[in-house]
């Protein structure tokens, strides 16, 4: 039974909007109040957040790739800090300086990449923006998160990208996901994902960020096109705004006349 | 934790979690409710029952063996694992004798309402399914066997196409005010899933969820052309459901295609340079200020 509750909580947490993890955790906490189960929720939150990469406290990006070995902490290579996270409170704790120079120094363009990604954020991400650049053997992970949390107007939205530059191979792979939640008088969710596969890129900061910019801008245009396609092809055909007669129905005894009319048409 | 705060937490969770997985999320939440050892079984079952009634799920389709026709199923025509067909007034799979049925006067109105909304369905949906179910107001179960006592009902529509699925659920309570006037309280939910079967594949946009609208209206029961109370209720119900669906369809259009796109491009990731847009916004507000100064 115990393991089953863990699965149930993990499944619920994984369907929460990225910008509303702490609210979802609070709700689940209330439902599980009778048991000493709050740690199950924290475990589920952390594994969901770090699997995909998540923004914490507005300016750090954590991922399973940035976990400090043998510790509960995560490393932010951009600022050279390590910290614990409290995802339920959306906070970082126990922040300390962490020496990243031995890992970072092997990448000659690391500093210029950080600078270029900062500029990229200023150009394209109007709300919260953070990224992490994580050296991992011959792989260089770049995780970007742009997020907007607007509870006053009942919406949250997040763009997340995860790229891997394979050093010495001149290639970049990656995926992006968009997740928007609108919940005024309802619950509406947008999701979209796209992959970047084995694209050639020179191993320098501007080439990498240009490749990311090009892929993400093309993907954004694709999404705008899909809105139009779903509107025209799917939505419009589900229910008419008005009947063919372009007027509302005459209810009452005479309503049978509509059927008479269509029978006459069908029998022709 | 009290019953109320658990109920509220469950509703808030359902409002936040992925609406495309509403049924499995609801089942999971109920299993958490049932797993709470600090609460007695009766109150766990009460909470489960109330959640099933409060949270609208996509409509199921069942086949009526007697008529051979399909009908829509929700918690309101359910008894155990069986659902009552409006075509034959029978439950499928069949049930014990104590399953609830509407009294004769409401069954007669139910048949006529199904006829009328079937025509509505044809005119607006050009396909799909519709079902209407009526039952007695709770307070009046032992009282009048007449329509004067009011009633409760649900009007359902479902339409599918290649790219999407639409479920409408209108729960209506009719409360008599005077001989000539009744109060109609209607809660309308439309569950609209535009994700298609391919939505988990890369490159597919999924828009999915539901919007809810409530309306209360006092309507006349002495309408021109309505020779009896039955017809008056049919006209009022028809007009109210038609009005609700018109408004919600416009709202869905606005939220799914304008609002979400705006949030994406203005709040999450802009295609053009954010700096350019800030400049544009500044110019725009200068123009407005200029106009206001005139």
From TrEMBL, chain A:
GO terms for MF: actin filament binding
Keyword vocabulary terms for this entry: Actin capping, Actin-binding
A single GO cellular-component term on record: F-actin capping protein complex
GO biological processes: actin cytoskeleton organization; barbed-end actin filament capping
Summary of subunit composition and partner proteins: Heterodimer of an alpha and a beta subunit.
Family: Belongs to the F-actin-capping protein alpha subunit family.
Function summary: F-actin-capping proteins bind in a Ca(2+)-independent manner to the fast growing ends of actin filaments (barbed end) thereby blocking the exchange of subunits at these ends. Unlike other capping proteins (such as gelsolin and severin), these proteins do not sever actin filaments.
The protein's name in its UniProt record: F-actin-capping protein subunit alpha
Organism: Scheffersomyces spartinae
Automatic annotation (TrEMBL), chain B:
Keywords, ordered alphabetically: Actin capping, Actin-binding, Cytoplasm, Cytoskeleton
Subcellular location: Cytoplasm, Cytoskeleton
Keyword Cytoplasm assigned: yes
One Gene Ontology biological process: cell morphogenesis
UniProt-listed Gene3D superfamilies: 1.20.58.570, F-actin capping protein, beta subunit
Molecular function GO labels: actin filament binding
Organism domain of life: Eukaryota
Keyword Secreted in annotation: no
Assembly behavior: Heterodimer of an alpha and a beta subunit.
Similarity comment text for this entry: Belongs to the F-actin-capping protein beta subunit family.
Task of the protein: F-actin-capping proteins bind in a Ca(2+)-independent manner to the fast growing ends of actin filaments (barbed end) thereby blocking the exchange of subunits at these ends. Unlike other capping proteins (such as gelsolin and severin), these proteins do not sever actin filaments.
Protein name per UniProt: F-actin-capping protein subunit beta
Organism: Scheffersomyces spartinae
Name of encoding gene: CAP2
